[in-house]
Amino acid sequence: MKRNVLIVEDDIDIANLVKLQLKELNCEVDIAHDGLQGLELFKNNQYSMVILDIMLPEIDGLDVCKAIRNTEFYVPILMLTAKSTELDRVLGLELGADDYLTKPFSLLELVARIKALFRRVDAMQTTKEQKNQSEDRQKLINFGDIEINLLSRSVKAYGSEVKLTAKEFDLLNFFAQHPGQVFTRTQLLDKVWGYGHDGYEHTVNSHINRLRAKIEKNPAQPDYILTVWGVGYQFTENL
After folding, report:
1. pLDDT band, residue 72 (cuts 50/70/90)
2. Distance between CA atoms of 93 and 110, rounded to whole angstroms?
3. Going along the chain, which residue ranges are E strands?
4. Residue 126 CB contacts under 8 Å (≥ 6 apart), including other chains
5. Which structural domains are found in the chain, ordered by start?
6. CB neighbours (10 Å) of residue 196?
7. Cα(186)–Cα(196) distance, rounded to whole angstroms?
8. How does strand 49-53 pair with strand 77-81?
9. pLDDT average, residue stretch 123-131
10. How far lies 214's CA from each of 74, 144, 152, 182, in Å?
11. Is 90 exceeded by the pLDDT of residue 197?
12. Which residues pair with 233 in a beta bridge?
């Protein structure tokens, strides 16, 4: 996978040496020799990593790091510096740097740190994608040949789009969220319509009849919305 990396380093020899190592890792590289140029490149391009020196002309690396972290896009930052005091390391990390390497450094350690940051970002991206997929799955309810899309409030039955009224959708969604559970008409009025007054049970009956006509192959012998005689209704749990 091709990655774009920004090096912000005023020492030309070090910048070229780091660039050479990144090329070996199949990276495209941009180099800036001062903080202002580095920020300008960052604003106009998308990078997989920023390798940032602390001691820079114009704007120092700590301010560049802070500015990058104030943007909406996350990119890993590896700081390079001749300074080795604990205070400098802590400042860099508190401002958002992901790792810290003190000059002089070995090329083997540099490459190891870069690879570790790439692995961390890849793991974060994988986790994010898995979470998004999980959330997408949670927006869909599938029972047999019925698919309920909670996001678009749409329903498919046997592969065809079914047009439901808002309350028909709410009723079907409620049933599908509680498969196998038996509800009286009064309970359905309370849960779906928000009231449970006597004398309104016919509202439930009429909605269920219309819903069955739209989603069942044979409304007279329903597969999904089942009648529990003497009690009420339940959504099947056997599909």
Report:
1. confident
2. 17
3. 3-8, 27-32, 49-53, 77-81, 99-102, 140-143, 146-149, 154-157, 160-162, 182-183, 225-228, 232-235
4. none
5. 3-136 (3.40.50.2300), 140-235 (1.10.10.10)
6. 15
7. 5
8. parallel
9. 72
10. 48, 15, 18, 21
11. no
12. 183, 227
| DSSP reduced 3-state for 94 | helix
Cis omega (within 30 of 0) on the bond before 104? Answer: yes
Spatial separation of the C-alpha atoms in residues 44 and 72, rounded to whole Å: 14
Residue 25: predicted pLDDT:
92
Q: Which residue has the tokens 């009849």?
A: 209
Which stretch of DSSP H or E encloses residue 211?
A: helix 201-215
Are 192 and 171 in contact by the 8 Å Cβ rule? The answer is yes
Query: pLDDT digit string (tens) for 133-175?
Result: 666 556 888 888 999 998 888 999 999 999 988 889 999 999 9
Using an 8 Å Cβ cutoff, are 140 and 148 in contact?
A: yes
Share above pLDDT 90 across residues of the chain, in percent, rounded to a whole number: 57
pLDDT of residue 138: 62
SS3 assignment, position 146: strand
Assess contact for 155 and 172: CB atoms under 8 A.
yes
The enclosing H or E element of 188 equals: helix 185-188
Which residue, 71, 70, 60, is CA-closest to 79?
60
Model-level pTM?
Answer: 0.56
CB 146 within 8 A of CB 155: yes
Residue 73 has what pLDDT?
Answer: 82
| Amino acid at site 164 | L
The CB density around residue 72, as the number of other CB atoms within 10 Å, is 4
